[in-house]
Amino acid sequence: xxxxxxxxxxxxxxxxxxxxxxxxxxxxxxxxxxxxxxxxxxxxxxxxxxxxxxxxxxxxxxxxxxxxxxxxxxxxxxxxxxxxxxxxxxxxxxxxxxxxxxxxxxxxxxxxxxxxxxxxxxxxxxxxxxxxxxxxxxxxxxxxxxxxxxxxxxxxxxxxxxxxxxxxxxxxxxxxxxxxxxxxxxxxxxxxxxxxxxxxxxxxxxxxxxxxxxxxxxxxxxxxxxxxxxxxxxxxxxxxxxxxxxxxxxxxxxxxxxxxxxxxxxxxxxxxxxxxxxxxxxxxxxxxxxxxxxxxxxxxxxxxxxxxxxxxxxxxxxxxxxxxxxxxxxxxxxxxxxxxxxxxxx
Amino acid sequence: xxxxxxxxxxxxxxxxxxxxxxxxxxxxxxxxxxxxxxxxxxxxxxxxxxxxxxxxxxxxxxxxxxxxxxxxxxxxxxxxxxxxxxxxxxxxxxxxxxxxxxxxxxxxxxxxxxxxxxxxxxxxxxxxxxxxxxxxxxxxxxxxxxxxxxxxxxxxxxxxxxxxxxxxxxxxxxxxxxxxxxxxxxxxxxxxxxxxxxxxxxxxxxxxxxxxxxxxxxxxxxxxxxxxxx
Lengths: 346, 230
Known about the structure:
CATH architecture of the domain at 35-184 in chain B: Beta Complex
Largest interface: A-B, 47 and 42 residues
Shape of chain A: globular
Largest sheet of chain B: 6 strands, mixed
Largest sheet of chain A: 2 strands, antiparallel
Oligomer: heterodimer
């Protein structure tokens, strides 16, 4: 009997899902949507992290857990605000001196939940995304950037795995770490190994003509370069306005930036016909992709509507007094749809 | 003779523990033990609500953040390290901690209000001087009066002498040993009302949705893992 191996979901469906799952932890600290998002994301992670890819990204979740604990302690010790005092450190102690409050502890826990959610989404993407298919989604002119980004991204799990291997090898030689001073036998081989891997990767890319000059027909025209530069500057200005809270101006600038970048990236360069990239396998977009992306778009729609109509459903501040957070039942119900990738099988 | 390392480490640990206990358990002087100084505080919010506070303190001088905190008015501040503390909200008015950490509640336009800090002139109570270095850098001494106003320009703080501020705060006499504050509402302005918490059925429904999501999440993950193993 021949069994057919399950194909991965199309990267575009995963990216839409990730945007919908990242919004609640990015825009607020309301525990209800945070909890719903975290549960759904962990379920999808558990469903897709069975193979070697899952094992490669699992240490990242451990690291996020450590950062979460640090975030809780940091907030508890440095935010001396709130009406529920649980302890006091002498005022003379720099930075951490003052009252310790339950409010700060809860805000730290919520921040830790948000950090863990974001990292869990990234780990799920890392374990499930077909990176070569994702790179093929980018315009041809961004291929070099995509390869560089992909190589950089792949170094994270490889470095973690290398650290574990070096530690095991050193322990077999009698290495027993007792403190920070004993880190040198780990750090030096890790650094040397990282540089060696970087050199091997660079040589392999060079052998495949990475970074070679573009063919004359792919050389961008001056107006395309100007359009790209103008788009980047406009995008940066729009992001700055968004950070300042000028939503209307930011929206106009970002829309202009999108237009300029599209004009620069997707219009034809000199020479006809244009060089075309061929594919051995075309990307597959079937029922599973429609279901996952449809559910994620529905979640996004509810999230954006809630953000405009009832922003308190995302936001929560336990300062200066601890109050019950606002609840939006439609938002919570919609966030349940983030479970859909765990339910479908491509 | 050189002591073994574990003895030195034990001795260091015991010394540190003793030092920590000494610092934590040392009796702190109470306000009643010493001669008290007093300072006034006036807070004006966006709708014109005026809060007057009269605050005793034992030290020779305190800073403006301490004065605000000791007044008893609900206040939220965030620390900016050596630059001191920024005031996010006073009496429930202002912005949240996350926004405060980014902008100290100040919007991008020139007329965006935020909590501005002023010192009253001791000679002419009608003169309020903006304090550009902020409350953490200000020095509050006996008889001083400071003001906070949620404004982009004119503070609109009243020309009242310290005795009048103590009286409006509700202090029976200016030598009071406990901080006291009172809010005066202008005509047509109501008390600040916080958003009401969600009712019982809504909370129960939210909890039920979370339980359903968690149950489905667990079931789906278990099913997918079993299918993957099979």
